[in-house]
Write a structure and sequence with these properties.
alpha/beta; binds nicotinamide-adenine-dinucleotide; 7 strands; binds magnesium ion
């Protein structure tokens, strides 16, 4: 089954120059309270709404994606649906507006969208989320741990215990908890994909807590991949570089850094969320059957291990 890109614009298979595929944006200084909404970021981010073309690579699959309302998670949700998967979306209650937009796009692709808002810092929500997703989708065979909290802080002395706790609970504890519950449902052939970051190897001085969790995610991915390999469940990670999402305008970057965001990459521009989607599709699909414990870097050319 092939689902055409509804916009009729160039899609991810159109031969084009990666330097100019997307404009080199210079975002104006802007601020949103955490977690930030895609609806309000300037300029608008591209999640593939009018460009991502599915070719049936995930036909009939059942996916749970955390942080699926916006940014990278939203682009992955759109792509998965157009590739033929039903999708359960996890996000914070205050992100309902963004989640509704993405759910509509999933339904427009002819797939089921299940919205399950809640706070991943809460261990009970981590369990309830997986249960409800599996129940409403009729099973589960793709898990994307993608939610993340990133708040820049100038110095270690200014990093509060509360932020430290919230960053670790959101970015790494929830990956353990959601994955542990998901294992009750994942059959051989299933795939787990964790969103890490270039920050795992090149930590910014202002992101000590965040970058530490991203290094932990890489390590978790490589260890768990070995543990689950005999069961036929593959675990991999995707490490984005600077991608234009609400994370960046809700204190993810110091305000004065926003206009230059992404310009120092070899491609000279920030990435758009839709440019991440094919990496997740590849790792979710059986075509990557011999790829385990891998971190796929999608970062505009910054050298990474
Ligand atoms: P985003 O703000 O669109 O997505 C992050 C999502 O995390 C939010 O939408 C929210 O739903 C979810 N989230 C945060 N705290 C939560 C909580 N307590 N409970 C439930 N959900 C919660 O931004 P994004 O950039 O698309 O981020 C997605 C992932 O990509 C994150 O893991 C982030 O660390 C990673 N990443 C982003 C970049 C980048 O430049 N944007 C670079 C490297 C890695
Ligand atoms: Mg969001």
């Amino acid at each position: 089954m092939t689902s055409e890109n509804p916009g009729g614009t160039p899609d991810q298979y159109t031969f084009q120059n990666p330097v100019t595929r997307f404009e080199s944006i210079t975002p104006p200084k802007q601020d949103q309270p955490e977690p930030g909404l895609d609806r309000d970021i300037e300029p608008e981010a591209d999640r593939g709404e009018t460009s991502y073309r599915g070719t049936g690579r995930l036909s009939g699959r059942k996916a749970l994606i955390t942080g699926a309302d916006s940014g990278i998670g939203a682009a992955v949700a759109i792509a998965f649906a157009r590739e033929g998967a039903d999708v359960a979306l996890s996000y914070l209650p205050e992100e309902e507006a963004d989640a509704e937009t993405i759910a509509s796009l999933i339904e427009a692709a002819g797939r089921k969208a299940v919205r399950i808002p809640g706070d991943l810092k809460d261990p009970e929500y981590c369990i309830a989320l997986v249960r409800q997703a599996a129940e409403e989708l009729g099973g589960l065979d793709i898990l994307v741990n993608n939610a993340g909290k990133q708040v820049a802080v100038e110095s270690l002395e200014e990093l509060s215990d509360e932020q430290l706790d919230h960053t670790f609970k959101t970015n790494i504890y929830s990956f353990f908890r959601v994955t542990r519950e998901a294992l009750k449902h994942l059959q051989p052939g299933s795939s787990i994909i964790n969103t890490t970051s270039i920050q795992a190897y090149e930590p910014s001085p202002t992101l000590l807590d965040y970058a530490s969790t991203k290094a932990a995610i890489n390590n978790f991915t490589k260890g768990l991949a070995q543990q689950l390999a005999p069961k036929g469940i593959r675990v991999n990670a995707v490490a984005p570089g600077p991608i234009w999402t609400p994370l960046q305008v809700s204190d993810g970057q110091p305000k004065e850094a926003l206009p230059e965001f992404g310009k120092s990459t070899p491609l000279g521009r920030a990435g758009q969320p839709t440019e991440l989607a094919p990496a997740y599709v590849f790792l979710a699909s059986p075509e990557s059957s011999y790829v385990l414990g891998e971190t796929l870097n999608v970062n505009g050319g910054m050298p990474a291990p």
